[in-house]
Design a protein that fits this description.
α2 (17-27) packs across α3 (35-42) and α3 packs across α4 (51-63). It is built from six helices and five strands, in the order ααααββββαβα. The protein has helices spanning 4-10, 17-27, 35-42, 51-63, 111-116, 131-134, and strands spanning 68-69, 79-80, 87-91, 97-100, 125-128. The longest helix is centred in the middle third of the chain and has 13 residues, at 51-63. It is an alpha+beta fold. The chain folds into two domains: 4-79, Arc Repressor Mutant, subunit A, CATH 1.10.10; 84-134, Ferric-uptake regulator, C-terminal dimerisarion domain (Dna Ligase, domain 1, 2-Layer Sandwich), CATH 3.30.1490.190. The strands form two sheets. It has a three-stranded mixed beta sheet, with no helix packed on it. It has a two-stranded antiparallel sheet with strand order 1-2. 36% of the residues lie in helices and 12% in strands. It binds zinc ion (2 copies). Residues 91, 93-94, 96, 130, 132-133 line the site of one zinc ion.
Length: 136
Amino acid sequence: MHDFKKICREKKMKVTPQRTVIYNELLNSYDHPNVETLYNRVRKTFPDISFDTVYRTLSFFNDIGIAEIIEGLSSTRRYEGNTQKHYHFICQKCGSIYDIENVPFNFKVPEEIELNYDVRNTRVLFEGICKNCSSD
Ligand SMILES: [Zn+2]
Ligand SMILES: [Zn+2]
C-alpha cells in the first residue's frame, strides 16, 4: 500500500480529507469500479462531493501513478488502486474484471517490433467468459 500522505508531499499535492477518502475507497475496491461507482461510495462519507471532483481526482491519481486505468475497454473508464503489475481477465458476458496475479506469463515482444520501436510497456488483456457465467 502506498503512503498516501508521503506521495502527496512528493507530488506537492495538498492532502485533503476528500482526496484521502477517494484514495482509500479506490484501494479497498476490488471490483475495478468506474467513476460513478466510486462516486457513490465516496458520497457515503462526503454527501456533498461532486461527481466532477471524483472524476478529476481519479484522473489526477492516474497521472501521478497511484491509480491505474484499465485499458482495452470500450465501456466506461474503470479504475483500480493496485499498481502492481498484473493482468486482467474481462468477462464478455457480465463485464466483471478479474485480477490475474502471480501467474507466470511471459509475453515476449516480437523482434520485429523491438527493432523498430522502443517498447516501454506492454498490456495484456484476456477476454472470455468467467466461471460464474459459464455455468448457466
Ligand atoms: Zn461473467
Ligand atoms: Zn486489476
